[in-house]
Amino acid sequence: MFKSILAQALRCSSNAQLPHGQQVTNVTKVWVAPLPEVSKWIVPIQMHYIENGKLKIQDIVKVKDSVSVVLYNISRQKLIFVRQFRPAVYHGLIMGNTRNLHKEDIDLIRFPYELGITLESCAGVVDKDKSLAEIAKDEVFEECGYNVPVDKLEHVFEYRPSVGASSSAHNLYYCEVCDEEKVSDGGGIDNEVIQVVELSIDEARNFVKEGSSINSGPTTIAGTLWFLANKI
Ligand SMILES: Nc1ncnc2c1ncn2[C@@H]1O[C@H](COP(=O)(O)OP(=O)(O)O[C@H]2O[C@H](CO)[C@@H](O)[C@H](O)[C@H]2O)[C@@H](O)[C@H]1O
Question: What Gene3D superfamilies does its record include (predicted)?
Fold first, then answer.
């Protein structure tokens, strides 16, 4: 069973899919633990309601809202993405649908950490007292190194990426940048370890083609499809 999970994970891995083999980071030890009662990031709650006279209960995970930016470099006609190790993706790939807590350290030889490296649009959590567009502008600078005025960010749409268990809202923006606006390497702030990746339009089209299997969330897929449908 593990062999088939690993084979599937390797197919999904952004490393296996894209011509950007450089090492993004180096993860040397992984283990899991139960969530503490109070988490800064996630609040599990239960909603009770009566629908058509019948009591119903729904378990909900409260997650912070987020923004993302489809970033297009017009100087070189490249879409800008980021790669990073995502613990949740890694866990999902190696544990599948099982809910057991793994007692020992994860075997990194059997399950290389690279499986958890995603390819995503530049994105960030809404955790500052700023407008959504300003938060998106900050992420473009911090993660990708482009300094753009906030009015260059075009609001595309708002949606809810995980309606079954989470109510969080996601706001997707589009921004065209040029080489002159690139002022740093990006790579994230604080503890973030992020690699900036540029894809040609054909590479991006390949990324969302029929039958593909990718290590990305709905935001990256929706943003890429929106770009291909509206800007090309
Ligand atoms: N659950 C968690 N546990 C511990 N630390 C956490 C955490 N979530 C965020 N952090 C910390 O906050 C930092 C900054 O996060 P960002 O604002 O860059 O959002 P991120 O890109 O991770 O996810 C954004 O982009 C992805 C992809 O679109 C969305 O799924 C997501 O909701 C959105 O916030 C992270 O580096 C991490 O240190």
Answer: Nucleoside Triphosphate Pyrophosphohydrolase
Atom of ligand 1 nearest to the CA of 188: 18
Q: What number does the ligand 1 atom closest to the CA of 220 have?
A: 28
CA–CA dist 36, 179 (Å, integer): 45
CA of 44 to the centre of ligand 1 (A): 17
Q: What is the CA radius of gyration of the chain?
A: 19
- 166: tokens are 């989470």
Ligand 1 cavity residues, CB under 6 Å: 41-42, 66, 68, 120, 123-125, 191-192, 217, 219
The domain made up of 2-29+64-230 is a member of CATH 3.90.79.10? yes
ipTM tops the 0.90 cut: yes
Q: Best substitution site from 125, 138, 173, 215 to test ligand 1's pocket, by max atoms within 8 Å of Cβ?
A: 125
pLDDT tens digits for the chain (232 residues)? 455 555 555 555 544 444 456 788 999 999 999 999 999 999 999 999 999 999 999 999 999 999 999 999 999 999 999 999 999 999 999 988 887 777 789 999 999 999 999 999 999 999 999 999 999 999 999 999 999 999 999 999 999 999 999 989 999 999 999 999 999 999 999 999 999 999 999 999 998 998 888 888 999 999 999 999 999 9
Give the number of the atom of ligand 1 that is nearest the alpha carbon of residue 125: 34
Q: Where are the domains of the chain?
A: 2-29+64-230
- How many angstroms does the Cα of residue 127 sit away from the middle of ligand 1? 10
